[in-house]
Amino acid sequence: MTPTDRLLPVNEAIDRLEAQIRDSQRRGEFADPLIVGIHTGGVWVADALHRALECRDPLGRLNITFYRDDFHTLGLHPQVSPSDLSVDVDGRDIILVDDVLFTGRTVRAAMNELFDYGRPRRIALAVLYQRDGRELPICADWAGQEVTLGPDEQIHVDGPDPITACLVSSKES
Amino acid sequence: MAVKFVRPKIPKFAPDPWAIQFDEQGHLRHLLTIEGLGPQWITRILDTAEGFVSVTDREIKKVPLLRGRTVVNLFFESSTRTRTTFELAAKRLSADVLNLNLATSATKKGESLLDTLRNIEAMQADMFVVRHEQSGAAHFIARHVAPHVSVLNAGDGWHSHPTQALLDAFTIRRHKGDFTPLRVAIVGDIRHSRVARSQMHVLNSLNVGELRVIAPRTLIPTDVEKLGVRVFHDMREGLRDVDVIIMLRLQRERMESGLLPSEEEFYRLYGLTEEKLAWAKDDAIVMHPGPANRGVEIESSVADGPQSVILEQVSNGIGVRMAVMSLCMSANRGDNT
Lengths: 173, 337
Description:
The complex is a heterodimer. In chain A, 39% of the residues are buried. Chain A has helices at residues 11-26, 41-53, 71-74, 105-115; strands spanning 6-8, 34-38, 60-62, 93-101, 122-131, 142-147, 153-158, 164-169. The longest helix of chain A is centred in the N-terminal third of the chain and has 16 residues, at 11-26. Chain A starts with 5 loop residues before the first strand and ends with a strand. Chain A is 25% helix and 28% strand. Chain B has 2 domains: 23-160 and 316-329, Aspartate/ornithine carbamoyltransferase (Rossmann fold, 3-Layer(aba) Sandwich); 162-309, 3-Layer(aba) Sandwich (Rossmann fold). In chain B, strand 3, helix 4 (137-144) and strand 4 (150-156) form a beta-alpha-beta unit. The relative contact order of chain B is 0.16.
């Protein structure tokens, strides 16, 4: 971290996310959700939500490497751990979790992958930070914080314990 | 066969005859042999394969990675298992697959290997999977294909069968984890086996604890010690304290050439029976690249027994081939990062 990096609040954002999901649950929605995190940062956030919401099913993990749309230009990304979704997704309400919603391409890839496991009843998207820069018609159902960034700025999320997030300017790094 | 085959000449200025496997940025483009890959690439292939094996456990066993690409299986020599697992691997990556059995095709009519290649290239193929009875054939093809085409060696003569060795290493790693404390014995016709040669390279690269070969003198290549193996001619000695036993297929034509007295004699001395298996460690796994000759190199009850991982090797082969295909196809595609 350089002195110009700005730390973003993480715990507050996770608390807000949890509160929004609980609001929906009080209205009878996503009462028994299957929580699925997108590797790598999304899994850390999903794990925190999974514990807070006391879900009965184990946490699912998606590695969208094989579903990315930039294989033709960037090739195969190095592997982290493979996807792990041990629960049947058919007919389930899925809360898909990522750390940062930026272009929307990762979420598209994750939904494509989810449908190769089965046919969920519905999918909602929870993100820690929703930033500008969307390239697809995708937005979060719940966001811990809305962030508008300068042209050279990015959000870096680190984890898993503790999860930290900061705004980084690519000009200076 | 009427294929005009020229044994590839490796140019003197090339510091590393296996450098052709990599593009200018150092990414894997062709897989022709295990040599030159080094532990880093081997491990990267095995790690990538883990992800693909988990895909093949799902209900929809397909990912969109190679959608719109064309993979051509060029089989100059017959094969069932290898060809079908390459085909399944390509299909599970969403590629289109063309199977050409060239042992019975245009090459019989006198078309040269290069003419055949040019014709298939004109069909906009992106990858050739090549099996040929001559050592060096895949290498030769790799030197002559268009810059966007990748070549995978699916077995060439006595030389190399890299994807088989990689799937064997993958299977061993899944059962035993770290290679460094392991004793591995390869049993049977080492001399004529491209599988054994590739296995030795892969296991040595991964720093296996001890590598043994067990076979009669006539079936051991003369320079085998250079590959860092211990040679045994007796099964009881060779199998002692072994963690992994790899049986090779005994090719019947060897019997005709006088290298072996008889199948019965070979089975008596080197066939893996339950009795001989008991000489290895209790938790030793038994492997075979297939097709197994039951009652010639392996007893049926061992091939089907609790220590056998032979069918697992076949399943793992699909994931490993998916990994190799996608890694090779992701090279040379512009700005790799």
